[in-house]
Amino acid sequence: MVYRILADATMVVHFAFVAFVVVGGFLAWRWPWVIVPHLVAAGWGLLITVFSLACPLTPVEDRFRRLAGERGLPSGFIDTYIEGVLYPQQYVEEVRAAVAVVIAVSWIGLLVRWRRARAGVAA
Question: Are 32 and 111 in contact (CB under 8 A)?
Fold first, then answer.
């Protein structure tokens, strides 16, 4: 029971991380300090995607699932819970491009907001 809870908690943290990678830049519009951890998270997400690296949370969840008597993850987190579940497998590249656009828009919007705030302060 405890291992199942730990596996599910790891999965939730993983989903939260992925969501933060996608929308963290928009959170920085409200809380500017969020941009630093978002840059780190987005950089990690980019590295994982470009170099096909495994996120450290994936083997942690897999281990907890196995200790709970479950099969474990059949593949990586994204492959298991997102690709083919939230969108069809054949649109992987389009979804990746859309995520990159969302992140870029959030950063550009943040830059515009910061410049407007500076211009208002300097006036």
Answer: no
Contact 87, 95 (CB under 8 A): yes
pLDDT along the chain (123 residues), means of 10: 96 96 96 96 92 90 95 87 87 93 96 89 56
**Which run of H or of E encompasses 109?**
helix 92-122
Domain span at residue 61 reads 2-122
Total domains in the fold of the chain: 1
| pLDDT score of 121 | 65
* Global confidence as pTM: 0.87
83: helix, coil or strand?
Answer: strand
Burial of 90 (0-12, 13-18, 19+ CB in 10 A): exposed
14-46 residues labelled b (16+ CB within 10 A) or e (exposed): beebbebbbebbbbbeeeeebbeebeebbeebe
